[in-house]
Amino acid sequence: MTIVDDLKQALGDIVLTGTQIGERHRSDASLTGRELPKAVIRPTSSGEIATALRLCNENGQTVVVQGGLTGLAGGANAGKDAVVISLERYTGIEEIDPQAGTMTVRAGTPLEVAQRAAEDAGFLLPIDLGARGSCQIGGNLATNAGGIRVLRYGVTRDNVLGLEAVLADGTIISSLNKMIKNNTGYDLRQFFIGSEGTLGVITRAVLRLRPLPAGRLTALCALESYDDLVAFLTRCQRRLPGLSAFEAMWENYFRFNAEAEKLKFFDEIPPFAVIVEQDLLGDASERDGFEAFLGEALEDGIIADALIAQSEKESRSFWSVREGHAMDSQLPALVNLDVSLPIGDIGRFAAECGAALSQRFPAAHVSFFGHVADSNLHIAFSEPDSDADTPHIVDGIVYEIVRRYKGSISAEHGIGTLKRDFLDHSRSPAELELMHRIKRALDPNGILNPGKVI
Amino acid sequence: MTIVDDLKQALGDIVLTGTQIGERHRSDASLTGRELPKAVIRPTSSGEIATALRLCNENGQTVVVQGGLTGLAGGANAGKDAVVISLERYTGIEEIDPQAGTMTVRAGTPLEVAQRAAEDAGFLLPIDLGARGSCQIGGNLATNAGGIRVLRYGVTRDNVLGLEAVLADGTIISSLNKMIKNNTGYDLRQFFIGSEGTLGVITRAVLRLRPLPAGRLTALCALESYDDLVAFLTRCQRRLPGLSAFEAMWENYFRFNAEAEKLKFFDEIPPFAVIVEQDLLGDASERDGFEAFLGEALEDGIIADALIAQSEKESRSFWSVREGHAMDSQLPALVNLDVSLPIGDIGRFAAECGAALSQRFPAAHVSFFGHVADSNLHIAFSEPDSDADTPHIVDGIVYEIVRRYKGSISAEHGIGTLKRDFLDHSRSPAELELMHRIKRALDPNGILNPGKVI
User: Fold this and answer.
1) Residue A292 in contact with partner chain B when CB distance is under 8 A
2) Burial class (CB in 10 A: 0-12, 13-18, 19+), B387
3) Domain FAD-binding PCMH-type: where (chains A, B) (predicted)?
């Protein structure tokens, strides 16, 4: 009997093979996966996941977990020799505890479904990112997803109170804690969050909920320099207690997307544009305070111009420029790089990086945007004459500069397969050796997501 | 040559033995340590710590790290066979980066020294607890210290961006990251934070700083029931964006400490008293808003009475009751238990726990207080006829009820030696086995803080 026969015997028709396997299991959103896996298992319980892993571990069979397949680092690509565990059927919210302010949720639940359930109960689930409609909670946790509300509510890691995961050998580690403070031995949830499926399979989680804001105020500001931008960020952090987004766009990025969306906000495209958003408590004076705050920043010359959204529609028009969906369709072979740098260095880094890329690729589009308050910069790159080697050359140029600035080659996308060769640009040999030691301890047969991360 | 001779030869006169060793190295603040260690090493660099660990590891010599010795779980007690590494001379702030909002600090730096340095630079270091004058940053991190500002700024883990630690074999793991988002492989800092010195020695850290509040408003509120208290907490969280403390006192606790301090706040001692504190931005209207908020809660019958501190002195008088220093001197053999429960269950838990303790110890003082917003309850227990077995009997009674409520036997004090026998009340066999697996991977010879935590 082959391992696939074993799995079918133990788990029945939740094990798909051959033509039963859908095309989508080939690759995550990086579109770099080429092959379909040898089998896809679609469990509906943690016990089924444990059984599958136990059998695979005993047979040395490699396993790749797939969620919403929205990752950009190739972390969920399986290849033809792996068995895939797809969490798409292990969905649902098991409990919302309004007094503890927690939600217990299964890993396959789409993020947006969980967000809506929280809202229906009067709470905010602060984990939020562009792919909310298709990404799944398990994948959000496995990659420690970042997103647009980190400034106020922290990264995904900070919003997970309890976790259940299955080890490579099929052991279920159930730590579905609902308490904020819990210092009873090692914090096991931390081992699995952000490990991209290489140390265990996340099956359920207790997420922290926050009060639902009564609304939001949104402004689009024009600035003259990166130094002004940092000064403005500092002031926003000190004076706007409900500050929930601070999204910066460099001139090129803003111009491209405003023109693509046929939107005109300022007389001239400014060197920097920033979306500032504040969560509201529902007090009538908050709008006046926001206007006064921006007026003062204008008077002091920290910002050059400011528009406050007068409607939900206008707020969405600001965000449409920031989200830049037009780039996907209009720029060929678009690459979105994701790096972190100390906040004070981002301006110089972007200038240096832009010059280096333009020197090597004179015809390329290069633009910058990002969650500057979280030290996170994205780079949009598109080369009309791109070939198979281009992405790797771009990575090499950018990550070499990241290394010199002591930055991180992955702020929020993870390492997956695509960034693995560059991990030593952000991590020392001692750190890498310790990661390998941890991997060997938790997955001694090396069956979980092989070749990913380390 | 003995290992102590080896250490002296390699490290010189930073190695103390015999009468050179101070009495304080016998025990942490639980006063349960009985013996002096065989040597005390007082390094002033990470390199010296690495050398000491390498030699000890090669010789199977056990090592206990000591910081400010303010722990309450026996975690830093050494015993006569261990070598102590005392971090008291490895102090100092290496850098404050105002743009990144970070402080890089050595592990032996007292918390209060770091707090003051942050303030001098216009920032708040939000890690804060009663022992701030003597506890050290390294110990705060090694125990994932909680404290009174968790509600607004998170536990210590959430305020650490970068970490340097030395492994048992002397390898220095330097991850002094200054970025909020960094998803480059496993998050190694998480392995050391909260591991109580059993997985490595924390030597330096990058801490996250926040804007320094312009001031604080403090109120003392009287409430009739635990349900009201939870409703009031929910309302505070939704309506006070700068909420930075919510400290609950049960009737017995409030009565004892108010009388001990000769302070009278309300006509009668209420069933529950709560200190609410709000960080200010410096806007003149904030005080009015705070008063209006409390007035509305009074009108709605959620609170029965409220006093707003009119001066720093009055605010300190509220806090003096909460801090309860009078108990230390007036109650014999005082025990301070530290547990976590889901917020909605704390009222019933306290009632049940109080009844069980009073039944077994009819003459004992039993009272409750805590950081309810963080799901954290403290229990003050004092038995006049206490003997050596009493603390263990009390632990047994309380932790058995904690187990039934699916709570945590340690919210913020850690496990150390004193809670180790009860760890299975909050952790499953699978979780404990995984902790042992991690311990074996990181410290295969078992030299680091032996017998602690697991």
Assistant:
1) no
2) exposed
3) 33-212
pLDDT tens per residue across span A110-157: 999 999 999 999 999 999 988 999 999 999 999 999 878 899 999 999
Q: Answer for the pair A191, A199: CB distance below 8 angstroms, yes or no.
A: yes
- B113 and B142 part of one domain: yes
The label of the residue with tokens 């009632």 reads B351
pLDDT of residue B282: 79
Closest to A163 (Cα-Cα) out of A199, A211, A121? A199
The candidate with the shortest Cα–Cα distance to A86, out of A51, A128, A37, is A37
Residue type, B56: C
Domain that holds residue B78: 3-86
| DSSP-derived 3-state class of residue A268 | coil
Question: What is the number of domains present in chain A?
Answer: 4
Last residue of a domain, one of A269, A297, A324: A324
**Would you state the structure tokens that stand for residue B119, as one six-digit string?**
């303030």
Kindly tell me if the per-residue pLDDT of B241 is higher than 90.
no
What is the value of ipTM here, to two decimals?
0.95
Query: Among candidates A368, A150, A167, A353, which has minimal Cα distance to A255?
Result: A368
List all residues of chain A from 93 to 112 with a beta carbon under 8 Å from chain B: 97, 99-102
Q: B150, B186, B227: best mutation site toward chain A, by most A Cβ within 10 Å?
A: B186
Burial class from Cβ neighbours inside 10 Å (0-12, 13-18, 19+) for residue B118 reads buried
Pick among A182, A229, A348 to test the B interface (most B CBs inside 10 A): A182
Q: Is B135 left (phi over 0), alpha (psi -120 to 50) or beta?
A: beta
Q: Considering the domain boundaries, does residue A453 fall inside one?
A: no
Residues A75 and A116 in one domain: no
The CATH number that applies at residue B153 is 3.30.465.10
| A365, A385: one domain | yes
How many CA atoms lie less than 13 Å away from A126 in the CB half-sphere? Answer: 25
Give the distance, in angstroms, between the CA of residue B180 and the centroid of all CA atoms in the same chain.
Answer: 23
Q: Please give the residue of chain B at the shortest CA–CA distance from A239.
A: B281
CB contact under 8 A, B179 and A373: no
- Strand-pairing partners, residue B211, are B123
In this predicted model, what pLDDT tens digit does every residue of B354-386 receive, in sequence order? 999 999 999 999 999 999 999 999 999 999 999
The partner residue sitting opposite A411, judged by closest CB among B101, B183, B285, is B183
Q: Which residues of B touch A194 (CB under 8 A)?
A: 183, 186-187
SS3 A17: coil
Distance from CA of A302 to the nearest CA of B (A): 16
* CATH number, domain containing residue B383: 3.30.70.2740
- State the CB neighbour count (10 A cutoff) for residue B305: 16
**B145 part of a folded domain:** yes
- Nearest 5°: CA angle at B431, between B137 and A91? 105
Within-domain flag for A242 = yes
Interface membership of A449 toward B (CB under 8 Å): no
Let me know: does A380 contact A350? Beta carbons within 8 Å: no
Structure tokens at B342: 């889901």
Same-domain status, A407 and A335:
yes
The answer to whether residues A315 and A369 belong to one domain is no
Share of chain B above pLDDT 90, in %: 95
B-proximal residues of A, 165-184, CB under 8 Å: 167, 171-175, 177-184
Claim to verify: residue A340 and residue A385 sit in the same structural domain: yes
- Report the percentage of chain A scoring pLDDT > 90: 95
Sort out which chain A residues have CB atoms less than 8 A from B123's CB and list them: none
pLDDT tens-digit readout, A160-211: 999 999 999 999 999 999 999 999 999 999 999 999 999 999 999 999 999 9
Is the residue at A388 inside a domain? Answer: yes
Clarify whether residues A98 and A80 are in a common domain: no
What CATH number did the domain enclosing A302 receive? 3.30.70.2190
Give yes or no for a contact between A432 and B184, defined as CB atoms under 8 angstroms apart.
no
